[in-house]
Amino acid sequence: MNAARARRHGREEAGDPGRRIALVTGGGRGIGSAVAVALAGDGYDIWLNYRRDHEAAARTAERVKEAGGDCRLLPFDVTDPEGARARLEPLMEGETPYALVNNAGLARDALMVWMSLEEWRDVLAVNLDGFFHVTKLLLRPMLGRRKGRIVNIASTSGQMGLPGQVNYAAAKAGLIGATRTLAREVAGRNLLVNAVAPGFIETEMTGDLPMEAVLPMIPAGRLGRPEEVAEAVRFLCSDAASYITGQVISVNGGVYM
Ligand code: NDP
Questions:
Q1: d(C-alpha 221, C-alpha 218), whole Å
Q2: Candidate from 35, 51, 73, 233 with most ligand 1 atoms within 8 A of CB, to mutate
Q3: What are phi and psi of 109, to 5 degrees?
Q4: Do the Cβ atoms of 46 and 36 come closer than 8 Å?
Q5: Which are the catalytic amino acids?
Q6: Distance (Å, rounded) from C-alpha 132 to C-alpha 138?
Q7: pLDDT digit string (tens) for 58-107?
Q8: How many angstroms separate the CA atoms of 201 and 250, rounded?
Q9: What's this model's pTM, rounded to 2 decimal places?
Q10: 90 Cα–ligand 1 center, Å
Q11: For 253, phi and psi rounded to 5 degrees?
Q12: Cβ burial 110-138 (10 Å sphere, 16+ → b, else e)
């Protein structure tokens, strides 16, 4: 029996139904992919959402299986509530995820003087509306279960602001406000809601950043790895984090303290 199955078995013996599902949005690559694999290692089965990169999602699904979890691929755009509903509702007739990780995100950087309305709207649509659409679909059943976790992936940008990211910082700061508010609304039902705020992490999103400008901002002197963010999410989704809600956990190498 591998470690993930052993954990699940232990929960079954302790009277927990054992089979826990985590829905990870934007899980095809980058941080979401690392989160899916980490949660699978903790005994979760994964519902893996992504938008259109089927190959990356299939590779993540393989890694989830190697880590001991089942993986169901759910391509939909989080900005499209009807598309999300069409994918999720049939599944939710049978099962309710224990954990939801709102990770799908998009950056379209430009100084505000140059930023187009489209760049503003696209970034808010994915990072903020996406949280609303997906969470709204799961919230009622998760509340009915009276136990669960929601983790929203915010950003250092939403905590301190970064030039060129008026759209992204607004969306992520909004997500932090939504996290705290929802945490207050649902804590009585034992549904715990937190945010993880990564700093500069090595993914496609940061691939084009000028490192000579970025590295001096990071006290740790390097970018973070997706797996280092995933560890914080894994903790928040574990039984060990049973009294933590409404918090923002920064994983940023000291960029913002
Ligand atoms: P990537 O760009 O590497 O991956 C983004 C993932 O999100 C992909 O799987 C992509 O799917 C999916 N996605 C994008 N738009 C949508 C959409 N509309 N609907 C569904 N899925 C979508 O991003 P990162 O891994 O770097 O970022 C993950 C999260 O972490 C984001 O919320 C980001 O804002 C946040 N973050 C990242 C930081 C970093 O330094 N990388 C720093 C701080 C926060 P597909 O490939 O199919 O298009």
A1: 5
A2: 51
A3: -80, 140
A4: yes
A5: 168
A6: 10
A7: 999 999 999 999 999 999 999 999 999 999 999 999 999 999 999 999 99
A8: 12
A9: 0.96
A10: 25
A11: 60, 20
A12: eeeeebeeebbebbbbbbbbbbebbbebb
